[in-house]
Amino acid sequence: MKNNYKNLAIISLATLIAAGPFFGSYVPRAKATGLSTLYNLVGEQDEEMFGKPVQFIGDINNDTYEDFAVGSMGYDLDMGVNGIAIDAGRIQIYSGQNGALIRAHTQLYVNTASASAFFGSAFSGIGDVNGDGYGDYVITDPRFSTGEGGAIANERGRIFAFSGANGGVLWTYKGTEDYQFMGGNSSIMSARDFNSDGKRDVAVGIPGSHPNGEWRAGAIMILDAVTGVEITRFNGTKSDDYVGRSFDTGFDINGDGVEDFILGYYLNSDVAFFAGAVKVISGQDLANPAVIYTQPGPGTVNAFFGVFVQLLGDTNNDGRSDFAVSSIETVATLDWAGSLRIFSGLDNSLIRQFSGTEKDELFSWSLADAGDMNNDGPGYKEVISAGLMASNGAGRADAFDVKTGAKWDKIPG
Fold first, then answer.
1. Closest of 78, 3, 83, 84 to residue 48, by C-alpha
2. Spatial separation of the C-alpha atoms in residues 54 and 225, rounded to whole Å
3. 136: closest CA among 71, 52, 49, 226?
4. Are strands 169-174 and 84-85 parallel, antiparallel or unpaired?
């Protein structure tokens, strides 16, 4: 029997956190005096992991408000006479205007090989790709396994594109390698228009891919958002690079007018065992990209620097987009306390570092670009860091002012 963990999502229109399974997910609303709650949503099943993840997904119902989706990667699907598919997964889409449920998706084409597929582990709005005026979206099924051809294809995963107008399937992409965990850990997002068709395309992480025989070197694949056909990909070069587990795009770091990518190599051991590392690469030619910046890990074992990464836009009013890197390193004598570092996109220098204050806190296990929450002027931003196990496991989200380094507000678990 499952333990009684039902996760919580508190949603608003200001910003977003996709926190871990025992903390739930929070999206705080910015106010001059602090953070407030717009919507309070609660999971239905034990260990459903409701709110893993949660994010805005575009205007799905064409009412001019951006809507949001909540994943439940641990949702158990009742298949009637065929029993229960444990951890099959579900995603629910809610109106940004009033918080009403628009629709829900559960795992499609379930079979006995696909239990624990974690449908809804990652999803993203992709804009209106079929020209009907409604925002469309993609959802991953990272651990889906099939019995096609009489043999099990283990955890190859799938990606579905859905119509915002009616929830119908627009296209499906199936993984091609066993245990590649395609699109797990929120690693799917809208990317720049790679094939010049006027539509933004889809970037998806494949951390378990083994290009050129390198085990778990990983990859980032670009799919045509209209057809689901692969356009290009970036491959990791060494075993356990695990490229695609943690990455982001959407901002231009080097000022060439093209959106770039940041990649977390959190298992990298060049500096110390699993110290981690991060690279920022040009988005011009993803198959053979120029490296813009490299950030090595902090030099301590098991720091896992790069476990989460994010491009933030300009945080310090210098006109260039900056980037954030999470680690779960030891802070002073506090094992697994964790840190969040913000680096300059202008010169790769450290702008701010925020760190956990509790042992096993897992500070910055999840992070979010909060925009200018305290109205301290254009070019400045706040960030929100989720401490997964803070406050004796209850969890906590902290909002930080990048300009001053001060903690601006918090949301307790």
1. 3
2. 21
3. 226
4. unpaired
CA-based end-to-end distance of the chain: 25
Q: Determine the Cα–Cα distance for residues 360 and 375; give it in Å rounded to an integer.
A: 33
Task: Report which of 89, 157, 149 is spatially closest to residue 120, judged by C-alpha positions.
Answer: 89
Q: State how far the Cα of 60 lies from the Cα of 39, in Å rounded to an integer.
A: 18
* SS3 call for 309: strand
Q: What is the pLDDT along the chain (413 residues), one digit of tens a residue?
A: 233 333 333 333 223 333 322 223 333 333 334 566 777 787 888 777 777 788 889 999 999 999 999 988 778 887 766 677 777 888 999 998 888 999 999 876 655 445 567 788 889 999 999 999 999 999 988 877 765 544 556 778 889 999 999 999 999 998 888 888 888 776 899 999 999 999 999 999 999 899 988 988 999 999 999 999 999 999 999 988 889 999 999 999 999 999 999 999 999 999 999 999 999 999 999 999 999 999 999 989 999 999 999 999 899 999 999 999 999 999 999 999 999 999 999 999 999 999 999 999 989 888 888 788 777 877 888 888 888 788 787 778 888 889 888 887 666 55
| Other beta carbons less than 10 A from residue 172's beta carbon | 13
CA atoms within 13 A on the CB side of 84: 7
Cα–Cα separations (whole angstroms), residue 59 to 93, 96, 134, 298, 333: 11, 8, 7, 41, 46
User: Is the previous residue joined to 53 through a cis bond, with omega within 30 degrees of 0?
Assistant: yes
Q: Which helix (H) or strand (E) holds 217?
A: none
Judge contact between 61 and 41, C-beta under 8 A.
no
Phi/psi of residue 112, nearest 5 degrees: -65, -20
Decide: 241 and 264 in contact? Cβ < 8 Å: no
